[in-house]
Amino acid sequence: MHDQLVIMAGGLSSRMKRAAADQSVHTVDAAQADSKDKGMIGVGSTNRPLMDYLLYNAREAGYRRVIIVTGMDNSAIKSQYGSMEADNAFHGLVISYAVQSIPEGRAKPYGTADAIYQAMIAYPELQERAFTCCNSDNLYSREALQLLRVCDAPHAWINYDRDGLDFSAEKIAGFALTITDSDGYLVGMVEKPDLAEIHSYADASGSLRVSMNIFKLTGSIAFPYIRDCPLSEERQEKELPATVLTIGEEYPRTVLGIPLHEHVPDLTEKSDIARVRAFLSKHYTELDW
Fold first, then answer.
1. How far apart are CA 62 and CA 79, in angstroms?
2. What would be the CATH architecture of the domain defined by 4-283?
3. Three-state secondary structure call for residue 203
4. What value does the mean pLDDT take over residues 50-60?
């Protein structure tokens, strides 16, 4: 078991900052979407940011040390979770920060694998130990976080049943399918699967499975792959799922998919804000820190 969680919050949120296609988006929500990191958008009671709920679930799942990877301007996050660079006490958690900068000549950071690399450089113990990492704009459940924390496999991810995510067909179509062997270990990923063949990728239970970018990694194996992750051809980013796939190819049967069927509240675009707020009002009437 491990107790360290790395939260990736250094992206530019470009999709969130696009003009809302849904005209019902409230002007107040649109304004905060344009000015805040996605995890800091107020969606909960008393305008709590989404990351409050993620941190609450992490604590309840048994995590104690959290590293938040931020962009260069992390003043809003620091004002919420502690002003020191490291070891801020927050409701039973110890919160530290790593910074993911935008390299010269680029308009955005290098991506999710680079975010984890920055955390591992800032906190070298991650280069040897197991830890969980996830996005800041998804509300992963206590169960999902705990399943990774206690998992015995060197590396793992929550292998979500696509039908349980409760997303639009358009959003679902953009997710890569994960392919596992009969014991649940990663053997491949299929980007933009052909709809005529899609059910051939179902697992033994008949479910189509996808990743929501929440992983357990063991640093002693993963670090060189994260450090040397190449840029993707399409997005020109260093993408964590590609790194995990490479690890699975070179260390067969070490990357375990943990099946789970549940909704994952997600802040990708402005129209998601009202949906996440409705979910929280139903399932998290208050945070009992």
1. 24
2. Alpha-Beta Complex (3.90)
3. coil
4. 97
- Higher-confidence position of 24 and 150: 150
Residue spans per domain, the chain: 4-283
Task: Write down the residue that tokens 């197991």 correspond to.
Answer: 130
**Backbone conformation region of residue 46, classed left if phi is above 0, alpha if psi is from -120 to 50, else beta:** left
Cα angle value 68/71/19 (rounded, 5°): 115
pLDDT at 285 over 90: no
Q: What angle do CA 69, 264, 202 make, to 5 degrees?
A: 110
Give 164's DSSP letter.
G
Question: Strand ranges (DSSP E) for the chain?
Answer: 4-9, 65-70, 88-90, 93-99, 130-135, 155-161, 177-180, 186-190, 209-218, 255-260
Sheet strands (E) in 33-182: 65-70, 88-90, 93-99, 130-135, 155-161, 177-180
Per-residue pLDDT of 167-179, as tens digits, reads 888 888 888 999 9
User: Of 61, 249, 47, nearest to 149 (Cα)?
Assistant: 61
Q: What is the rounded average pLDDT for all residues in the chain? A: 93
Per-residue pLDDT band at 20 (split at 50, 70, 90)? low
Residues in the chain: 289
Phi and psi, residue 64, nearest 5°: -125, -30
Q: For residue 140, what are its two tokens?
A: 């992963």
